[in-house]
Structure formats: C-alpha cells, structure tokens
C-alpha cells in the first residue's frame, strides 16, 4: 500500500488536470484502502473525501491472512 500511494496521487493529479475545481473522492478496498490512507497526507485538500473498505489492521495481520489464503497449512506457518 505504501508505494501504491503514488498511484493515488497520480490519479488525483490527473483528475484535477481534466476537471479543475472538481471534487475528488478516493475509494479504496483492502490494499487499495491502505494506499489511500498512505496518500492522504500528501493529497491534502485536493481530495474531498475517502471511502475506505476493509482496510487491514496492520501489516502483520495482512501478511498472515494472505499466507493462510494461498498456502497449504504447514507451508503457510513457515512463510509467515
């Protein structure tokens, strides 16, 4: 999510270039919600609002959920 914040900021810039003075709402889900939150400080007043769906609590929880989802039981413990 941290490096993906650049995508959010680029999208905000693109929208403002095409619709000067328009309102921008950023909608993020899961990893996208993390990217939106990381971008919020840099986006400042250029974003009118945020819709954040299913953000993960922290990086360790996100990692644990992903390893459980995609790896077999013993392998997921080692990978985590």
How does this structure look, described?
By secondary structure, this protein is α+β, with helices and mostly antiparallel strands. Helix content is about 60%, strand content about 10%. It contains four helices and two strands, in the order αβαβαα. A two-stranded parallel sheet has the order 1-2. Helix 2 links the parallel strand 1 and strand 2. Helix 1 packs across helix 2 and helix 3 packs antiparallel against helix 4. The two termini are about 20 Å apart.
Question: Would you kindly provide a brief summary of this structure?
Answer:
The protein has 80 residues and is α+β, with helices and mostly antiparallel strands. It is built from 4 helices and 2 strands; from the N terminus they run H-E-H-E-H-H. The longest helix is centred in the first third of the chain and has 14 residues, at 5-18.
Q: What is the string of helix and strand elements?
A: HEHEHH
**Based on helices, strands and strand pairing, what is the structural class?**
alpha+beta
Q: Proportion of β residues? A: 5-15%
Average pLDDT reading:
90
The number of helical runs is 4
Q: Number of DSSP strands?
A: 2
Q: How would you describe this structure in keywords?
A:
80 residues, alpha+beta, 4 helices, 2 strands, 57% helix, elongated
SSE map:
Elements: H1 5-18, E1 25-29, H2 31-43, E2 49-53, H3 59-70, H4 73-79
Parallel strand pairs: 1-2
Helix pairs in contact: 1-2, 3-4
């Amino acid at each position: 999510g941290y490096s993906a914040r650049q995508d959010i900021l680029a999208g905000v810039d693109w929208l403002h270039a095409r619709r000067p003075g328009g309102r921008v709402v950023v909608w993020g889900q899961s990893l996208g919600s993390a990217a939106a939150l990381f971008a919020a400080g840099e986006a400042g007043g250029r974003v009118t609002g945020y819709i954040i769906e299913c953000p993960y609590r922290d990086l360790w929880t996100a990692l644990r959920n992903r390893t459980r989802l995609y790896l077999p039981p013993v392998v997921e413990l080692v990978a985590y």
